[in-house]
Amino acid sequence: xxxxxxxxxxxxxxxxxxxxxxxxxxxxxxxxxxxxxxxxxxxxxxxxxxxxxxxxxxxxxxxxxxxxxxxxxxxxxxxxxxxxxxxxxxxxxxxxxxxxxxxxxxxxxxxxxxxxxxxxxxxxxxxxxxxxxxxxxxxxxxxxxxxxxxxxxxxxxxxxxxxxxxxxxxxxxxxxxxxxxxxxxxxxxxxxxxxxxxxxxxxxxxxxxxxxxxxxxxxxxxxxxxxxxxxxxxxxxxxxxxxxxxxxxxxxxxxxxxxxxxxxxxxx
Length: 268
Fold this sequence. Notes:
By secondary structure, the protein is mostly beta strands. 5% of the residues lie in helices and 56% in strands.
């Protein structure tokens, strides 16, 4: 079923404003801080077409973090080489619907779609303790749709993020998001349901491994549902800095065959 809002972005803007307001409550002040992160990500795949598409995606994210809430802004740079059969929707490569995307044999680069995100975390203490966060995201159409770098439309989503520490060496992770995909003229995208599940495992001092399985519903009729398996190693340095490298393997035609990334984050 295709849902829509009478005023695009109204619900998500209200949620993001509420998350920011909640983050400013006095109880959250002691853990306040800023974080900046960026990464170099490369992915390649055919996405059900006959020709391979290669992409470089470099996000720059500024976060304002509090005790139980946070807000972030991501501004990405994107470069994509393809035959015009693939475009980016919400930052993810998708075999395009008819009527959007770049011309055949194109290689394009430029700013990607900006992403706003807010979250509020409920921490339940005791023997059955776990963290549950309510999150909202808003994708602003800042990418050039004529180059195949975006759709030129607003996307808005809400989700839940769950974490449960089973032992000091094992934390269970699971997220679920529902995103309303904006439709360009003459195109009818399906809304997207995305679910992932995995583990966070400290391996030794300052070194940790995160593994995730992710599945998303196809937003274009006839495309395969994107499914992937990923692993990320993170190494914590002094003064709040962290380095990370990751590898993702596609498990369906809707996903990149292979994706690699390396990045850093720092608190101040």
